[in-house]
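Notebook p. 47: complex prediction with fructose -6-phosphate.
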Amino acid sequence: MIIYKAKDYQDLSRKAANIISAQVIMKPDCVLGLATGSSPVGTYKQLIEWYEKGDLDFSSVTSINLDEYKGLGPENDQSYRYFMNTNLFDHINIDKTRTFVPNGLETDSDKACADYDKIIDTSGGIDLQLLGLGHNGHIGFNEPADAFADGTHCVDLTESTIEANTRFFACEADVPRQAYTMGIRNIMQAKKVLVVVSGRDKAEILKKVVCGPITPQVPASVLQLHKDAVIIADEEAMALMD
Ligand code: F6R
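Predicted complex, structure tokens below:
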């Protein structure tokens, strides 16, 4: 595990975008695993800026997102598909037919998850997986549990995650209670993992992830076992690390 300390969110975003750019330049037809949430927004903005300058070409890239709320379709402005379109895909030359997000409108969870695992497997594997970190240590929507989840699965969101995500909805009752998410196996099989962590409110969990025991109660702690995991954290998130 390599940890880079960034000065602030802007510096973190630039550093993360540099790593993603390097991946796209080295392998133009790479498979990027992408995340939603607040953490990667600055990274996506930076990538868009470099694309507009003519420094990046996404025309051969495939993207596979981590997760999607069950029950929300692409037109819903709280869906992760909508987030990805508005925060990244609409602004770069990626072929949208090669951008994948779990199908939130599929009511048959087994089918939705099996279909998504097939997409991941037939893509040839994820070259670089971008992750944010939940306050409870979740990655994707792999919440603290008794065992590490395997492939894509349907999860019941924990109260803390529902509470954290309420900021994006009109009220807590509107936050979906279930989501489809890649499992720990899908994430760990990515060739490279890049985690972006920002803010003092992530300091406690970041310390547990990096210095604590590897346990499904802190899902991101499993990244200690990944052979190419990079964490970029800003000074506030690093506040409790030496
Ligand atoms: C998003 C995702 C989540 C977030 C995490 C952190 O696709 O899978 O695991 O990365 O909840 O969210 P933010 O970045 O909003 O703090």
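Notes: The longest helix spans residues 9-26. The pocket of fructose -6-phosphate is lined by residues 35-39, 66-67, 132-134, 138-141 (CB under 6 Å).
Next step: compare against the earlier run before touching the bench.
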